[in-house]
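Consider a concrete sample entry:
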Amino acid sequence: MVCRTCNWDKYMNSSTTELCILLDASSSMGPIHHAAIDATNNFLEEQKQASGRGHVSLVTFHSHVKTVHNRIPLDEMLPLTPGDYRLEGGTALYDALGHQIEKTLKHMEATSPDDPQSKVIFLIVTDGWERGSRNWSSSDVRALIKKCRKLGWTFLFLGAGQDLMPMAAKLGIHRANLLPFQATNEGIQNSLTHVSRTILSLREMDMESPTPPKTFFWRFFGTFRQNSSTKEDDDKEH
């Protein structure tokens, strides 16, 4: 599947954003359930303050994938509620990614070449390893992500625990776009606050010679990650 409308220069100078949030709703998120809701709503509220137009798709995943919001204009986005975010089952991360990437690609392909090209940003938030996907494999999702990165899309991965690096490597997400968080109320709040401000900076960029997203995000994530109490092994490259 090739997006005929994607153009890097148009992408970086676009004032529109397609923001796709994939939020883990497995039972292991229980200890930070309400903090995750609050942090997500704070994130969305901050994104509303940015210049430029945007749409938000919010997907939760446990053993099944649920689309809570599909391409809602940012300024019309309603807060996430406990009813929207019910925890159960496993972590069908591959199914959530495959489903949402395919849906977003189809929308982008249907966009007129004359329309402004949206910046596409995927934000994945999970506290554990994939378990439960039925329709998508890691290799299928990795191939999709590789294709979309070539189109200029950005994939950010917020994860708790020691699984973050190998899981992201399996999906082909660049290590510069990884952000570990502690699975505590404060941990998820701090991480989503930081990534929100980073995304705001990307959305407001208008550069003649753009920096690739992986370098851009490393500039912002580097200091935060070094100060995080969850340490990654910097000697492991993928």
User: Anything to note?
Assistant: Strands lie at 16-24, 53-61, 65-73, 119-126, 154-159, 178-180. The chain has a mean pLDDT of 81. Helices lie at 8-12, 33-48, 93-109, 138-150, 164-171, 185-203, 213-227.
